[in-house]
Amino acid sequence: MNRPIVWTIAGSDSGGGAGIQADLHTIKAFGGHGCSVISSITAQNSVTVSMVEPVLMQVFTSQLAALESDMQAGAIKIGLLPTGLHAEVLAKHLQEYRRQWPVKPYVVLDPVAVASSGRAMADANLLPALQRQLLQQVDLVTPNALELEALSGIVPDSPEGLRAGAAALLAAGAGAVLVKGGHLTWPAEQAVDYYTDGEREIWLASPRLETAHGHGTGCTLASAIATAIAQDYPIEDALVLAKAYINQGLQGADFVGRGAGPVAHLGWPENPADFPTVVMPGSELGDRLGLTGKLPQGRFAAMDTLNLGLYPVVDTVAWLERLLTLGVRTLQLRIKDKADAEVEADIQAAVALGRRFNARLFINDYWRLAIKHGAYGVHLGQEDIEVADLEAIRAAGLKLGLSTHGYYEMLRARELKPSYLALGHIFPTRTKDMPSRPQGLERLDRYVALMAAEFPLVAIGGISRERVPLVAATGVGSIALVTAITEAQDPDATTLELLALVEGDNAQRQ
Ligand SMILES: Cc1ncc(COP(=O)(O)OP(=O)(O)O)c(N)n1
Ligand SMILES: Cc1ncsc1CCOP(=O)(O)O
Ligand SMILES: [Mg+2]
């Protein structure tokens, strides 16, 4: 596999728990190739920092030049900069990379100024240089509560204070801000991270972990985000993965010296318990954080099985009838962009057919008509979550399937307790213009490992007859298809073959 290049520009920690050393562990764990630009050499162990020595400016810029001429970065993580001058010089280099490089690196700044022991790690000129020059060159800055206060002058002692502090960093030029919740004193029982790019907010919560350890968490989090982005994960997935990596690493942390041990580096996060909760409007925590909106009041009706099997998605009642007659038992009517009045008769007919064949028949999009005609279930997309009356669908007893396109959307959908989750699009598809990138089998594998115990899962998007065995091998319980069936030379024979492939002995042929 091609490992994306990720640079860390940071200080060396002789104790091996933070700085360059933590960054390189993390970059490797996330599948990147780590390159380092050492900004300063620290002498420290698990109990004290005894020396911080900035590297000569020529040593600093020679490392940048060496990498720049041969090993252009997909993402750059910046940690400790020992002087304001190092920050100024770096800002100029970053500006130049953005101008010259064909692919712009994603830059994450972890604004380290004070060690966890309380010792100042940088000179007094660093803060103004960050504020006036470096912030403008970064895509994401990741302060903790103390660093946010130092950079913005605003004390984040409430959600409003936190939002105001983050807004000040956006105004200073940062592309986005992630405030880490570890040092916030509220909410008491959860460590809540806050992300904003000025247009949207994401709040991620995990229970506070009782541990004496955690040296290097800030460095590790920023490196994990940078490497996930270099792997082409969208920012919201990078945030979720990085927080899961930290939670896993804190659980596994132990003494190395006499003091606080380093966060452990335990590979790609896979345990659902390590993943954060997406704080939803309408939840108790959401209310406390000032989010507005509603949540459904309970779970959606459960499916009768975790394995929904072959799942054709078609646009006419005639197709539904043909497939039901062949023995298909999970199907969807997907008619796009028509007025309710134009589709009502088809939806009514589809619901009646589904009942006659005792099938799991989902209606895409038209949730009001689905409720009105007593459909078995509704399938909705991410955009619909904001606008559909989910509680009305739930209260009417309809099943709900939700589309997701990655870690963050899966975790957000999880909070709505739907009947199944769809994961897509797995391969490039001609059927629909997708704003996200194809997920591929490796990511599908990981999603299935994470969510399969909790929800029936459906894979969709670009799944041809030939790809069905590969998709089925991930353990996903259902495979949704459009063109593999509707454009097959012999749709009936193909459907029977697919039923046997996906459902094996459980295929209910008539
Ligand atoms: C099983 C299944 N998965 C995903 C989709 C896509 O739904 P959505 O995101 O709402 O997009 P449209 O289908 O409405 O274009 C689906 N329909 N079925
Ligand atoms: C509706 C939809 N949602 C995600 S991909 C997709 C289309 C799947 O069609 P095909 O199986 O022809 O690629
Ligand atoms: Mg839809």
UniProtKB/TrEMBL annotation:
Positions binding Mg(2+) in this chain are 365, 384
Q: In which pathway does it act?
A: Cofactor biosynthesis; thiamine diphosphate biosynthesis; thiamine phosphate from 4-amino-2-methyl-5-diphosphomethylpyrimidine and 4-methyl-5-(2-phosphoethyl)-thiazole: step 1/1
What EC identifiers does the entry list?
2.5.1.3
- On the tree of life, the source organism's domain of life is Bacteria
Q: According to the UniProt entry, where is the signal peptide? A: none
Its annotated function is as follows: Condenses 4-methyl-5-(beta-hydroxyethyl)thiazole monophosphate (THZ-P) and 2-methyl-4-amino-5-hydroxymethyl pyrimidine pyrophosphate (HMP-PP) to form thiamine monophosphate (TMP).
NCBIfam families per record: HMP-P_kinase (TIGR00097), PRK03512.1 (NF002904), thiE (TIGR00693)
User: Under which name does UniProt file this protein?
Assistant: Thiamine-phosphate synthase
- Name its species: Zobellella aerophila
Gene giving rise to this polypeptide: thiE
